[in-house]
Each structure stands twice: as C-alpha cells, then as structure tokens.
Amino acid sequence: MSSVYGQTLLDDMVQRQGLPMPLVKQAAQEILAVIREGLMSNGIVNVSNFGTFRLKLAAARQGFNPQTRERITIPAHQRVIFSPCKALRDLIQPVHHPVIPIGPDVTPQRTAAMSTPIASAGPLATKRIMPPAQPVTEKPETSELPPPGSTTVTPERRVTPDRRHHAEQDETETTEAPHQPHTTKQNAPDVASRLDAFTDSANAIALEAEEETDTTGRSKKGLYLGAAALLVIAAVTASLMYDSSPKELPAAVITTPSADSRPASTPLATDTLPPEAQVTVAAPATVEAETSANEEVDYSTLYTEMADTQPEAPLASVAVTGEETAAETVSETPPPAQVTETTVETTTEQAPPAITKPVAIATDKPTTFFFTEQTHKITNGESLWRLARQHYKNPLLWPHIYQANAALIDNPDSLRQGRTIILPSLQGTADNLTKTDRRNIAEGYYLTYLYYKNTGNKDAFFALLEAKRYDNKVVEEHRSLLRLSKVEEIMLGHQETMPF
Amino acid sequence: MTTAELVKALAKRLGVSQKQARTLLDGYVGAITAQLAQKNSVILRNFGSFSVKDVAEKRAYVPAKESLCLIPAHQKLHFKPAKRLKDEVSEAVPHE
After folding, report:
1. What SS3 state is found at A112?
2. Contact flag B3-A47 (C-beta cutoff 8 Å)
C-alpha cells in the first residue's frame, strides 16, 4: 500500500520491454501531455484497457475558508473525472459480493419520493388541508335535526362501522402480493385509528355527518339509502317549519334541496313547499332522477346565484360549522354550501369521460377569490408543483393547474418552456377549498393517473387515491373504465374522502 | 478522444510509428495497472494520483432490486487530478 512515483513506472517499463530509458521517459511525458491536451480540446479521453478521463462542470458555489471562516464563492470550474474500465475495476475488486436486499419491512425512502406529488402528499396534505371543521353540506340537516329525524336515521347508519370492519378483515386476508400489501397495511390501521378516534369523540352530530358522507361515498346503495334518509328528515323539518312559523319559510326551502330531494327549478319559489314535501316523501329515488334531469336545464340560474353568494362562502360557512352553534342562523349559511353542491352535480352530469372545465364558468365573475385566473408563460426550471406553491401557497394543489391546461401539458412532470398556460382561479384558500376547487383538483389527479397509467408508471394508483381524497365523485364517474386489481380496489375503498 | 487518436498524436510527437507508440502507451498504462493491482498509489507529478480506496459497507436504495440493500464493503479506484492539471484544464475549457 505504498506510493509509487513516475520513475518506478519507467524502471518497470525498461525492465519489461527492454526499451531505452530516454525513449520511455519521453514517452511517459508525452502520454500525459496528450491526455491533458485531449481533455482541453475534447473534454474526454479514452485509454483502452485503462479507463476514461473526462471533464465535468462544477457550478459555482458558496464555501468558506476553514482557517478564517470567511465566506468565499468557489467559481465554476471543470473537474477531471477518471472512470476505470471494467478490467481495471475487477482487478481492484476481484470478488464482487452480492448486494443483499434488506427485507421489505424497511421501506426505501426513494419509493415514497418517486411518487412525490401523489403518495407522499398524503399525510402532509391531510395535515395542512383538512380542516377540523365538520362537513359543510350536511350542516343544515344536522343542526336543524329534530329528535324524530335522528331516530329514523340512526339504525341504518349503525351498519356502516360493521361494514368497514368487514372490509378491513377482507383486506388483511387477501393481501399477499409482495409489494402492494405493504402499503395497504400501512394505510389500513391509519384509517381505522382515525375512524376510531371519530367514533370515540363525544360529538355525536359530527359523527353522524361524517358517516353520512362515508355511506354516500361507499356505494350506490349507500347513497340511495342516505339520500332517502335525508329526504325524510328534510321533509319533516320542512313541514315542521312550515307549521310553526311561516316567516322562516325561505330558510326551510333552501335547506331542503341539499338533501338531493328537490328539483333545482324551484330554488327560489317559496310558496310551493307543501307539494314539495309530498313529492319527496313519496318516491325518493325517482325524485332524485328528476332532480338530476332538471338541474341540467337550470344550472345557469344556479351559477348566477352562486356568484352572488360566493364571496362569504368559504370563510363564513366553515366558521359557523366549526362552532356548531346556532341552529337558527342556518338560514344564512346554507345557500352558498347548497348552491355549490348543486353546481358541482350539474357539472358532473355535463362532463362525461372527456373532462370539461367547470372552472371557466365559476370564474366568470371573479369576486374575492383566493387566487384569480392569470395566464403564465413557462420559463426555465418551472414545474406545476412550483407554480402551485408560488401562486396557491400550497404545492399539493398542482393538479388544479394541470386540469385546466390538460391539452397544453403532455407530461405533468415536465413543462415545455415558452408555452403560455392558464393559472386557474382558486375559490377557497389552500386550507379551505371549495367544492369546485376540490373537483378540479380531483380531476387533475385523475388525469395524472391516466397519464401515469399510460406511461407505465407504477405509482399511478396513488394519483387515483388522491383523486378520491379530493372528490370521490370523480373517481366514481370513471369507476367503470378503471381496471383495478383486487388490492387496489381495497385500497381505494379505504381511502377517505376529505370531510367538509 | 479515442485511444487511436491518442496513439496517433503520440506517434507524431515522439517521431515513432503508431505501432511503437501503441506499445509504449500500453507499457506505461500496464505499469500503472500493475502497481494499482498491488494496491499501491501511483503519483504522477503535475498530472494526478491514482489510489485504491476502501469503501465501507453501506445501505442504499438499489433501483434494480427496488429495495433498500446492504452494499458490502469494497475497494475502488480513485483518481485525484493534480492542481496544475485542474487549473490548466479549467482555464482552457470554457465554463459558463
């Protein structure tokens, strides 16, 4: 392990090859000179049976003088790299010991990082975005809930925890694939514990509301049941209100449609309440069908209405729901929430597989949005993630931009420099998204899923999970087109939708 | 720059045939390699030094295996360019 200088090499050569020393000496000098000059002119010099010398640019960086602790800038320079050829490498390390994979229970950080915006977004997003507030849409019913209403609903809802439990058991039994189950198992207890936390909490109203959203999200059957239950409550409350105080009529009228019970053609007509209630009680399922049909026709009026009510919507509604205070103040809060819901539904019907842009309609009247629509020319080094961080204050909302520019962006992971894209407006803040925002983001994630799926990215599924997290409807609409594996189905079933 | 080009340039400078130049190059490189095989460092003035370095065992994500792996301790060749080579090259080659 000693050091050898040039002269030793020369002696060695003379001895082995029997060449005269002066020639060898000059040759050694010239060889090194030629390599040096080759590096200068070509930047790369290959010496067979030895290796390759090449140059690598080192960018300027901040350093400091260790003696004086003075900050200095190390200028950009070229580094000389030598990569030995295989023969030489094998000479240095003759035996290559195998690389041993350390069991699957040690998750490599890279796998999480590879799906950066999607998988790793999970916990962070939950922390940052999920407000402790209760579901906004369910608010009218829960706060107004009279004793008879709650009794009619509870038996049916009690079913859901059991169902959830079964699903968990199934999942633990069926997961046997090498990599996937790992993530599944991680997800499952997380979800379960969170659900437990919910059930343990003394806030019964919150629980009911939460489960309501879950049931609706879980299956069509659940949706119908939930809708039916809500219809009953709505009808009861409406009739009660009507009987007790005719002055509160408008409030009652407006709260009913949020239960999906009411044709959208009559949101402002205050006199038609009794027939309304009769219809809802009579046949909930058919009425729902009618609703969707009617909504399609009348959404334009709803949009205008929404535009009027929108300004206070995000902040006001959540503030009230968070406190869960006044049942009587409901008459003020429901309009924005209810209207946004119906608009989203209408867009749902409008947008079959090819996803249109509901944003465009919403931004017709830019009021006090968190971020108002802008155009943006992509410059070097920009990404959706970075743009979202810059403009929306939360990089996790990047699919919002992708969704609005799906035609312009071929690859969401790399943007083309020089193209002009639209930065769509964000109605709510990053921590408090409106339903339209959520839908757009979910669609963005769904598009990402499709892109990843087409390009064979195995993390594609995480994009779908995110889509469900933001808006379950988006996933449900395309559910028939998705070919999910069994494990993926289970994982998707466990993915919670962000509560309102 | 390929080895052939290197040999050609060398032959021109030394005033020998390309075949001889090739022999000289191979002999020189062979002499360095022989020393490195014995784990000796080779120090070439104003050019740089070749040395054999020990790399300790480490854990790293191996993309091919798609998992965290234990990479055993091994040895590798390390080249450190001389200051003069570094400076000369850096001056000659533009870097923005």
Report:
1. helix
2. yes
Inspect the interface and report whether the beta carbons of A17 and B23 lie closer than 8 Å.
yes
Give me the amino acid identity at A460. A
* CA-wise closest residue to A446 among A415, A478, A422: A478
Q: Residue A331 gets which letter from DSSP? A: G
Q: How many residues does chain B have?
A: 96
Euclidean distance between CA atoms A494 and A441, whole angstroms? 20
* Contact at CB, A2 and B37, closer than 8 angstroms: no
**How far apart are the C-alpha atoms of A184 and A178, rounded to whole Å?**
11
Collapse the DSSP code of A388 into the 3-class scheme (helix H, G, I; strand E, B; otherwise coil) and give the result: helix
Amino acid at A3: S
pLDDT in tens, A105-162: 444 444 444 444 444 344 444 444 444 444 444 444 444 444 444 444 444 444 444 4
| Partner-chain contact B13 A42, CB within 8 Å | no
For A393, left (φ over 0), alpha (ψ -120 to 50), or beta?
Answer: left
Q: Which of A205, A239, A229, A45 is nearest to A135 (CA)?
A: A205
DSSP letters, A474-489, are: HHHHTGGG----HHHH
- 3-class DSSP state of A71: strand
Whether A297 and A307 have beta carbons less than 8 Å apart is answered as no
pLDDT tens for residues B22-75? 999 999 999 999 999 999 999 999 999 999 999 998 888 888 888 888 889 999
Q: What residues of chain A lie within 8 A of the CB of B6, using their CB?
A: 34-35, 38, 45-47
End-to-end CA, chain B: 23
**Distance separating alpha carbons of residues A428 and A418, to the nearest angstrom:** 29
The answer to whether residues A40 and B93 touch, using CB atoms and an 8 Å cutoff, is: yes
Residues A36-39: contacts with CB within 8 Å, 24+ apart?
A36/B47, A36/B85, A36/B88, A36/B89, A37/B9, A38/B1, A38/B5, A38/B6, A38/B9, A39/A80, A39/B89, A39/B93
Distance CA A140, CA A251 (A): 10
Contact assignment for A46 to B65 by CB distance below 8 Å: no
Q: Which residues of chain A, if any, have pLDDT below 70?
A: 103-367, 498-500
Q: Best residue in A2, A36, A96 to probe B by mutation, most B CBs within 10 Å?
A: A36
Q: What is the pLDDT of residue A81?
A: 93
Least Cα separation, residue A182 to chain B (angstroms) = 13
Chain-centroid distance, C-alpha B68: 30
Question: How many pairs of residues across A and B have Cβ atoms under 8 Å apart?
Answer: 191
- Give per-residue pLDDT as tens, A443-463: 898 888 888 888 888 778 888
Map residue A81 onto helix, strand or coil.
strand
* Helix ranges (DSSP H) in A99-179: 109-114, 121-129, 139-144, 147-157, 159-174
How far out from the chain centre does Cα A225 lie? Answer: 29
Burial annotation A451-462 (CB, 10 A radius, 16+ → b, else e): bbbeeebebbbb
d(CA A39, CA B41): 23
| Mutation choice for A interface testing from B20, B62, B67 by most A CBs within 10 A | B67
Nearest to A345 by CA among A472, A175, A485: A472
**Is A35 in Cβ contact with B6 (below 8 Å)?**
yes
Provide, as residue numbers in chain B, all residues whose Cβ is less than 8 Å from the Cβ of A82. 48, 50, 77, 79
Instruction: Give the whole-angstrom CA distance, residue A235 versus residue A252.
Output: 10
B31 contacts on A by Cβ (under 8 Å): 9-10, 12-13, 16
